[in-house]
Amino acid sequence: MNAPLTAADGEPLKKKLAREQRLKQFKAIALVAPLGLFLLLTFLVPITSLLFRSVDNPEVVTALPHTSQLIRSWDQRGLPSDAVYSALAEDLARAKTDGTLADASKRLNMEISGYRSLLMRTARKMPLHVAPGESVRDHFIQIDERWGDPDHWHAIARNAKSWSPYYLYRSLDLRENKSGVPELTPVNERAYLSIFGRTMWMSLWVTVFCMLLGYPVAYWLANLPKRQSNLLMILVLLPFWTSVLVRVAAWIVLLQSEGLINSGLMALGIIDHPLQLAFNRTGVYIAMVHILLPFVILPSYSVMKSIPPSYVKAAISLGDHPFAAFWKIYFPQTLPGVAAGALLVFIMCLGYYITPALLGSPEDQMVSYYVAFYTNVTINWGMAAALGSLLLIATLALYAVYSKLVGTDRLSLG
Amino acid sequence: MLPNYASPVEKLWYWTFRLVCVLVLVFLMSPLLAIIPLSFSADSFLVYPIKSFSWRWYGEFFGNGEWMHSLKNSFIVAPAATLLATVLGTLAAVGLTSSNFPGKSLLMTVLISPMVVPVVIVGVGAYLFFSPLGLTNNYLGLILVHAALGVPFVVITVSATLSGFNTSLIKASASLGANPLLTFRKVVLPLIAPGVVSGALFAFTTSFDEVVVTLFLAGPEQVTLPRQMFSGIKENISPAIAAAAAVLILFSTTLLLTLEWLRGRSERIRTAKA
């Protein structure tokens, strides 16, 4: 047993096997590589660059390079030295001709409103003609007295570096105070925490409704004879395969004030004036539950199919009440699979955009809406990237939990 | 199902349960059933009752340049994205199931992630990254991102089919002198074809139904059918949308029946083997 086994050519078998396995691994990786490269370029890099953009802060450094460099050595007390004022004069004279001033003034206007007009007004007075012995600072304060206000200089100092947590802080309703410590913004300026809260809250309710409606249907279908359940399954799969926009359009038709539901209820005399069902939270919930319900029913159905009915029968024959047997024997067996389905639905809800945008009021919009809004409407890419990054982090954290629970290699579709 | 010795409470529970289930199924089907008849209404508003029957809105849909242009675009983008996703996804699934290598489960998680990352983030990320490269407002950019969104479905379905695949067939083919390419073409591909096709169908509907990425990446030339419906619903909802919806429902029914037929076929193959 001491001599190693060898192949016909005298080479140790172990070595040959290891080489063969390495070759196989290499082939496997070579097959996955094209897709990996493709996703890297079309998906992973764009998303990573979005993450970077949430801390990207180039405007002030680009427009005011000298000022930015000098202000870093300012002790943040009182007003900066005359050298900083002259650097600003020099930068402004250049920035107004090369077109970088507009972005910088827009950026500084986010810090202190009115900054845009201050910079524009000052830039018009550039270049500054300062006689020897005169103070540049006095000239600036003469143009506008706000140049004598340290807060306006703190704003430049905060943005004198090419990255900043500003947008991420804003997305969490935080803002840096003078000493650079984040603190909550005043109550009337807060917006985003409640948007995140609303997104979570709506996703939670949609998930709960989907579970309450989906679980019984999955149970029913799983316990019917195969021929019947296959037929009824079509009723679940057909809406699943139908375009989301078709379904949203159909729900608007059904739910609007002259729609089928309202006119039906009025004809039956249950109500005497139309209920507001569309373009509010109710409409969004109805359509979202409709869209996501198959995502609960299908995985729950396949979990329930794999549970042998003999366990519950045994419990009943041993004297358990059918309800108790269901609750103690059947339900716990379905729980892991069904909980994973619920988590997936919750994750998908978090990113919803189209349904609330078409069927909701402004108070029903979720985070995705604001990401799109800042990208397309106000062209504030920093804010869009920051809100998007926080949404992405939340989604990926939950997805990590999901793949730990389920294992992505066990994922199946219907 | 219900034994005749069941108590009244049990009977009540049984019928309530069935009623709830039927109501949920009605809920699932009702929007589809409600919008189709309206597409045949002669009325200019999408309201019931339907006073007279007409093909007017189908004429509007098929005769309108904008709708037809968007339909054409959808039939350019979706097949191209499907082809790309299917080829890359199938190769990757074959690689993933053929051997174990370090970081395999992490890689799988990454390949599946386009399914869970919010589409808005994919759209904005692609928009900001692609616009300096000149890939916005053209077909290529749209096709690339749609393919990325369809990839997970192909990887999942093909891997699932391959997990039931009998690998001794590959060895048999190799021992009979076929090279790996020939083996793949003549042995593996015909057997996993149902999985590949159903993955392709998923990828196709993903692209065919996609509107968010299109909102960011497409210019006026690349407006797809869902994008056209999106602005139609937002601006004024005319019965031409009902006609478009009815056409799409017919289309998705066809896709679903194809998929079910394929599933039945692959099940027969699997049971025949066992």
From TrEMBL, chain B:
The keyword Electron transport does not apply. One of its GO terms (cellular component) is plasma membrane. PANTHER family: INNER MEMBRANE ABC TRANSPORTER PERMEASE PROTEIN YDCV (PTHR43357:SF4). Residues 71-260 form the ABC transmembrane type-1 domain. Belongs to the binding-protein-dependent transport system permease family. Its main location: membrane. GO terms for biological process: transmembrane transport. It is a multi-pass membrane protein. PROSITE patterns: ABC_TM1. Keywords: Cell inner membrane, Cell membrane, Membrane, Transmembrane, Transmembrane helix, Transport. InterPro entries: MetI-like (IPR000515), MetI-like_sf (IPR035906). It is found in: Cell inner membrane; Cell membrane. The lineage of its organism: Bacteria, Pseudomonadati, Pseudomonadota, Betaproteobacteria, Neisseriales. This is Binding-protein-dependent transport systems inner membrane component. It comes from the Bacteria. The chain crosses the membrane at residues 12-36, 75-94, 106-130, 142-166, 187-217, 237-259.
